[in-house]
Structure formats: C-alpha cells, structure tokens
UniProtKB/TrEMBL annotation:
It comes from the Bacteria. InterPro entries: Acyl_CoA_acyltransferase, GNAT_dom. This is GNAT superfamily N-acetyltransferase. SUPFAM superfamilies: Acyl-CoA N-acyltransferases (Nat). It comes from Butyricimonas faecihominis.
Length: 288
C-alpha cells in the first residue's frame, strides 16, 4: 500500500478503477449517470487522501477518506473476493479512526460488506447528494475502538491534559466551568480532551504525548463538527502562529488576529517550538 506514481497518474488510474467497479456492481445506473458522476469522482480523487493497494506496479484498489468518513472504496473487479477491501477498511478504522460511510441502498453487495465490517444504518435518504433518485444509506461503525464522552462531573479531574494545551491554570478557570468538555477514550483510557464554549470556540484541545501524531486530534475535530453542526454555523479556534498550519490542514481558515494576546493575558511567557507566543490567530471552520 504505497505510492509509486505521480499524483496525476494516480488520479487517472483511480477514476478508471471507479468506473470498472461501478460497471460491475451498480447495475441500477444508466450510462448517462456514469458520465455525470465521473467529474465528481475525479475531483474527490484529486483532493482527498488516498490509500492505494498495488499488485506489482498496478493500483488495483483505493480508499479515499475525509476526516473520519470513508468517501470512496473501489476494487478492480478482477481482484474482488481477495480480502483487499477488508484490509483497506480495517486500516481506515485503525489508522484514521474512520467511523462513517455512505452507500447506495441498491448496491446490495456493498451494504452486506459493510454490515460484516461492523457498520450499521444510521439514516436513509431517498436521493443521493446530487439529487438523483438513488437512495443512500448512511452507516456508522457500531463499536469503534475510541469514543468521545461528554464530561458531566469534575472537569478539573483532567487538569493534566488541559494544561498541556493551556499551561496557565488561571486561564483555564476562566472558561472551563461554563463550557462543554469532552474526553477521548481508547481502550478504557482517557487519551485526549476538548473544551468548547457557548459561542462555539474550541478553548482547549489536547492529546496525550504518546498518542500524538496518530490523527486523534483530527478525530476530536471531526467529532466536534458533527456534534455542533445543528447549534453553530462554524467552530472557532485561537492558536499561536505555530498552530495555524495544523488547523488549516483540517479545513479551518484564518479570520483575524488578536494582537499581543499571549503577552497581555499570561503571567509567564508561552513558548511554542522554541519561539515566544505573542499574537493569537482566530480561525473558523464552516460546519453547515
């Protein structure tokens, strides 16, 4: 599962795989539908992270994902039944913490496959995302290895995590009690947390050091976007210069800068990657 070609070649091959797979499994589509969907598939292949399965030098299957949602999974018809799709899904569940996927209801093979992989139907729509009359089943993993839990008791019980993201306890006290707090559990252990205030600003987000670099921060952000989509039009986060790129990676865009925020509000210098923090950048993520 590795890339051996440039991105343009990979995209073209994935579009070819999509069409071959769809022609073999989506007998409810007509020729015009394939022509209609092809540009959307190409766009997704261009913008989404892709996991590729090679046989020799040839890509024979791929999975595309967006945060914790599996957006595409297609296998060359000649390689179906060999466990390749299962391997890709297991990787997505374990490594990018994927928990949701949408499938055509009329694609009975896919519906059965995801049921075997532990997914269950969460909701159904009569049409697909383009308004075409093909019902869609929205599936969610029944027993994911991690979960977010809202804290209803003593939020200060997680002070060690809170201080990883905001090293001044007095500052934490300003927002903690009036905000929602969630903890991320994995294998019975709390490995991360997030605090969101009444205006939709993420005031604190942290993951234990030994779990950093494993996309658990992305998982938390994905959860928050889903949890608050009916309450806020966007989520906000304030960060130092060093954190801007991290949030931009997951769809946040810069909104404005609060000059001298860290020097004006913290009694001790805040150091990020060896540099003192001065200004705070506010970023927003559209969630509706």
């Amino acid at each position: 599962m590795k890339e051996k070609r440039n991105r343009a070649e990979i995209v073209e091959r994935c579009v070819e795989l999509w069409e071959a797979s769809v022609r073999a499994t989506h007998d409810f589509l007509v020729e015009g539908d394939i022509e209609f969907y092809r540009p959307f598939v190409r766009e997704n292949c261009e913008k989404l992270p892709l996991l590729l399965h090679y046989e020799g030098d040839e890509i024979v299957a791929f999975l595309g994902y967006d945060m914790t949602s599996i957006e595409m999974l297609f296998v060359d018809p000649d390689y179906r039944g060999k466990g390749i799709g299962r391997d890709l899904i297991e990787w997505a569940i374990e490594d990018v913490h994927a928990e949701t996927v949408a499938v055509n209801e009329q694609n009975g093979q896919a519906v059965s496959f995801y049921a075997r992989m532990g997914f269950e139907v969460e909701r159904r729509t009569e049409t697909d995302g383009c308004g075409k009359p093909y019902p869609i089943l929205y599936l969610r993993l029944k027993n994911p290895p991690q979960r977010m839990v809202k804290v209803t008791g003593d939020k200060k019980a997680y002070l060690h995590l809170l201080l990883d993201a905001d090293p001044c306890e007095a500052m934490v006290d300003r927002y903690l009690e009036e905000s929602d707090m969630f903890v991320l559990e994995r294998d019975g252990k709390v490995i991360g947390e997030a605090v969101v205030d009444e205006k939709g600003e993420i005031k604190n987000l942290a993951v234990l050091p030994e779990y950093q670099g494993k996309l658990y921060g992305m998982y938390i952000l994905s959860f928050l976007a889903g949890y608050y989509k009916d309450r806020f039009s966007c989520l906000w986060v304030g960060t130092s210069e060093g954190g801007v790129g991290y949030y931009e990676r997951y769809g946040f865009v810069q909104d404005h800068v609060v000059k001298n925020f860290f020097t004006d509000n913290y009694p001790e210098p805040i150091i990020d990657n060896g540099r003192p923090c001065v200004d705070m950048t506010l970023l927003r993520l559209e969630i509706r």
